[in-house]
UniProtKB/TrEMBL annotation:
It comes from the Bacteria. The chain crosses the membrane at residues 12-30, 42-58, 65-84, 90-107. Keywords: Membrane, Transmembrane, Transmembrane helix. The keyword Transmembrane applies. This is Uncharacterized protein. It comes from Hymenobacter fodinae.
C-alpha cells in the first residue's frame, strides 16, 4: 500500500503530464510559422487531454492507457513532421514536452500506483 507522500507524488506527476500536454497545444496556433507554411494548418486538441488527465486524477483506469496511446501518437507526428520538413523547428519545441509526458506515463511507478490503486477514504 503506497504511503500518502507517494500518492501525492503521483498526483503531482499527473499535473506535470497535464502541463506538458496542455502547454504544447497552443504553440501551433500562436507560432504557426514554426510548424507549417502560411497556407497550412496544424493544431492539437486540448479538450481530450484535459478530460483524460481529469480521469486519471479521478482514478479512471483506462485514462492512463488512452493518454499513453495519444502521447505516442503525438510523438510520432512530431518525428514524422520534423523529418519531412526539417526547416520547421516548432516540432523540436513540443517534442520534448511530449517525450517527458510519455516517459512519466509509461515508466513512473507513482503515476501507475495512483491511477490503479483504489481511493481510500480516511
Amino acid at each position: 500500500m503506497p504511503t500518502t507522500s507517494q500518492k501525492d507524488k503521483g498526483a503531482q506527476l499527473i499535473f506535470v503530464i497535464a502541463i506538458c500536454l496542455v502547454a504544447s497545444a497552443p504553440l501551433p496556433m500562436w507560432f504557426k510559422g514554426l510548424f507549417v507554411e502560411d497556407s497550412g494548418n496544424f493544431s492539437i486538441g486540448v479538450t481530450g487531454v484535459v478530460l483524460l488527465t481529469m480521469g486519471m486524477l479521478r482514478r479512471w483506469r483506462p485514462a492512463r492507457s488512452i493518454l499513453l496511446g495519444l502521447t505516442i501518437l503525438y510523438l510520432c507526428v512530431d518525428v514524422v513532421a520534423f523529418t519531412l520538413s526539417p526547416d520547421k523547428v516548432g516540432f523540436l519545441l513540443i517534442g520534448p514536452l511530449h517525450l517527458l509526458a510519455l516517459c512519466l506515463l509509461a515508466f513512473s511507478r507513482d503515476v501507475r500506483q495512483y491511477v490503479e490503486e483504489p481511493a481510500t477514504t480516511a
